[in-house]
Amino acid sequence: MIEIFDRQRRVRGFDLAGLRQNALAIEHAAGIGGRDVCVTLVSDARIRRLNRDYRGKDRPTDVLSFAQTEGEDGATNPSDVLGDVLISLETAERQLDVRGFTLLEEVTHLLIHGVLHLLGHDHERDDEAARMEAEEQRLWAAVRGAA
What we know:
alpha/beta
């Protein structure tokens, strides 16, 4: 189950109900099953601290994923918790011109991206990026079909 929490105060009037509806479609299409994903909408200041502390990059980013299914040695952790996705609404709002999305579409795109990272997808190499992009498109189609 994907649970969504809004813990930021900068961007007002965001369509949280719409994101929750899109999350249901993502949950089903991605095959998350009975595993939990916690999504938190945060400020740039919060995501910047996390990006600095966990990735060594002292700047805000749009989305961070923290998987709970891998241990330090890369072994799977048998857990009902898939992980956490943090999305900066401020950064998402600044990126609207890039893809021509509405804010809800941009945040949905970031949620799809974050969930795919939790499921083990990556985009460091070209072949991985191509597989992840194909899966993003498949999940987008599911979201649009559910609307």
